[in-house]
Every structure is written in structure tokens, then in C-alpha cells.
Amino acid sequence: xxxxxxxxRIDRRAILKGGTAVAAVGxxxxxxxxxxxxxxxxxxxxxPHIVYIVSDDQGWRDAGFNGSPDIRTPNLDKLARGGxxxxxxYALPMCTPSRATLMTxxxxxxxxxxxxxxxxxxxxxxxxxxxxxxxxxxDAGYRTAMVxxxxxxxxxxxxxxxxxxxxxxxxxxxxxxxxFRHASHGVVDWYRDNTLLHEDGYDTDLFGAExxxxxxxxxxxxxxxxxxxFTAPHTPYQAPKPWLDAYADISDESRRAYAAQISSMDDxxxxxxxxxxxxxxxxxxxxxxxxxxxxxxxxxxxxxSAVKGELPPNNGVYRDGKGTLYEGGTRVAGFANWPGAVQxxxxxGPVHIADMFPTxxxxxxxxxxxxxxxxxxNVWGAVAKGEASPRTEVVYNIEPYRVGVRQxxxxxxxxxxxxxxxxxxxxxxxxxxxxxxxxxxxQQVEKLQKRAEQLSKEAIPPLLIGQMIKTTFSAPPSTPQxxxxxxxxxxxxxxxxxxxxxxxxx
Length: 506
Known about the structure:
15% strand; 10-stranded mixed β-sheet; single chain; 32% helix; 15 helices
């Protein structure tokens, strides 16, 4: 162990154990000298407050800091300019898998959340034997608060945020709600802690106000972890009239509402930052922002709301979008900002959402020995100091019918179910994934296939497919009763769940 590593451990004990450890550090300063002690303080900042912000289905280019031509995000842009922008931040292709990976530091195929999302009628959730990020931070002395969308299980109370490590919770449990009525399929889904609320207001405004309230009431001598998970700009595309009017120049109705949702969210984030500044917390607060997956380009993945016409998200040069294994579905906009601790610039190399648990835990001095083996790695050097990312592999997803694995710059997408599909891309040369190199590189394909097969042996079956089978085979007969006509599927019903997903990224 290096002397620097020893110093870091000592400083963290000092914070956690108080006077005894402080005395130990003082004694050691006599051994190593005053200059060494001063250097240790510079290298090891105090444990930060953490404000972790996630947007919902936001397109990669739909922020000013990524060059949006029409959507204004001044608050996000200011944070991005002063922080480290992720050029290769990877999430999972859909909401539930991404959020589960953030909470566990583990790929979702390890606990059955790799496929689709937990539907409104779903009775399953994130495995209860997983040790989550808020639990680790709480055990390390943090106050943990969650505001916004959960989407990791709602059918049983033990799946809910308050039972999974958060000291407080405010928001919806399911994946999609009406932004004004706070309801899914007509059922209100809006909670404070474990209590159902009936409350008026636009959800983005309410999330921002709640986050501000938490910050203003927080005792700054206790470290804070605030997980702020917006529902914007997920469907349905809705926004208050003043924000819609601000984009009167956008003729497409969906794009106008989508842009208004993002600007409303940006405004709420600006108020959160202002509250941090007013409360004297800003200088020692790490703010992380990213989307949970790429912007939606296919109506199949738009959620449970009806959509029409061209879908509004813009993923820039990246192919396709939400629900697919292409870059447009998995490479998301994001940054990290901590004044004086994170250098302004760009993060070099890939960072995966699984990396955030071990990275934040290390900063917080939190132990992870209760957690199962993580797929994430500590990427703080890449985020804060511009060092190369230690991550050499990206697992896009492992499912029974498709996989995506990247090593170095080579990325394999493989759909093994007939008629089958093999795609190999060199992302350094072709980030838009237009040139399939599989036929010309059989050895590289075989290597990545073997890696995918190895990972698939560690997977458990997707819980969503099990739920669908159970629901289908427990349904009453569809036989016509008397003179009643036979039931027909809705016009927008999928012809086949698996066949749609298998070919969704063709």
C-alpha cells in the first residue's frame, strides 16, 4: 500500500470516528512532517454531499452542452462547463435496468431485471438480497433522500425506497405517470415516504421544490445524499403553458412539449444549485447528472402513453435510441461537477452506470462488504483528474435473445435467435455504427461471442418474461360467450413481445 493510500484511510477514519482518529492523524504528522499533513488535506477533500440527478429518456443531443440546436438548458450548461463532461457514459437501454444498476453496481442480468421495465401491473421488483447504494451511504453516516421516479418495484412495500435505504421519499413508484395528474392508468401513484398523496401541480416543479426544501433544511455537518430522479422528458409529452409558449417557434407539437419538459427540468435544477449555494453546501457538493437511457426513437419503447408522428428525442450522431443496444440507446448525456475537486474538461474513455456505486462509496468512505461482487469499478481518477478510464469492457446487456459487449473499441451485437444477427463495430472509427465489420473479422467476433456466452451463464431468467408467461396462462379463456363477438386485440397491440424486441434494433 502506498503512503498516499495510507493517508486517505487515516483521513476517512478521522471523519468517521471523530476525536480519536484526529489525535492519531496529529501524532502521525509529527512522523511524516507538517508538509506531508498539508499535502494529505489537499489530496483528500472532506466527504462530499452528493446530489445525483437523473433525467428520463432524454436524447444525447438534447442539452446545450451537447450542441442542441433548439433546446435551452442554461443551468445544465453552466454545470457542464465547470465540470467533467462524459463523452462515453453508458447506461442500460431502458429505465428499470439502468436504475437497478445504479443502485447495485451490478449488471441487471444478475438479478433478472435485464429485459424491459417493470410494468404497471408487475408484481416483482429489485431483489431484496441486493445491498443498495443508499444503504451503504446510510451506514456510512449520510442522510439519504430520494425525490422522483423509483421504478424498481411497487407491488410490495418492501420494494419501496424507504425500505431500501432512503430516509425519505417523495414521488411516483411506477415508470410512467401523467405529469399533472400523477396517475398511471387512472390510478394515482404519488407518495411521501410510504403514504399515498393527492397533490396538485406539475411533477417537475414539485420535484424541484422538494429537493430545495430538503437542502435548505439539512444540517450541513451531516453529509447528504440526494437522489433526484426526474420524470422529464418521458412520455406523455406535457408541460405547463409558459414553457410551451417559450418554444412557440417549434412547429411539431411533440417536440415543442418535449423541449419544454427539458427546460422546465433545467429550471428546477437551477433552483437546486441556488439552494446549495444559499445553504453554504455548494463548495463541498458533488453533482452528477445523466439520462437513464437514450432518447426514444421507436414508438414500441415510448411507454404506455399513446404517441404519434415523429418521436422528438435527438441522439445526435448515435444510432437509434431507447430499447436498443446501439449507441443511441445506451450512450447518454452527462457530467460531474464539484468545485475545486473535479477538473473542467472531458472524461477520457468509457464510464458505465455500474461504476457509480463503487466510485461514490469510495468518496463517502462507505464500506461495500455487504454488497454482492460488483461489476462497477472506481473511476474517480478519470472523472476528477482527467486520467484514462480504468474500464476496458462495456456490457450493454445480456438477454436470452440478444447481447451487446464491447472490449476496447470493438463492439459486438449478437441476436442468436433465428434468423440471427451478428454485428461488429469499431466505435473509434465509426461511432454511428454504419459499417458492420463482422464478416471481415471472424476471430474478433468469436472472442466477443465467447465473452457473451460466459456472462450469459451467470444470468438468471428475465423476471418480465416470467411475469408475462404467468399472466398469459392464468388469463380466462378468450372463447366468445353466447352471441358476443370474439375479443380482438387493440390496434396498437404488439404482434409478439419477443419477436418485436428481437428485431427492434434492425
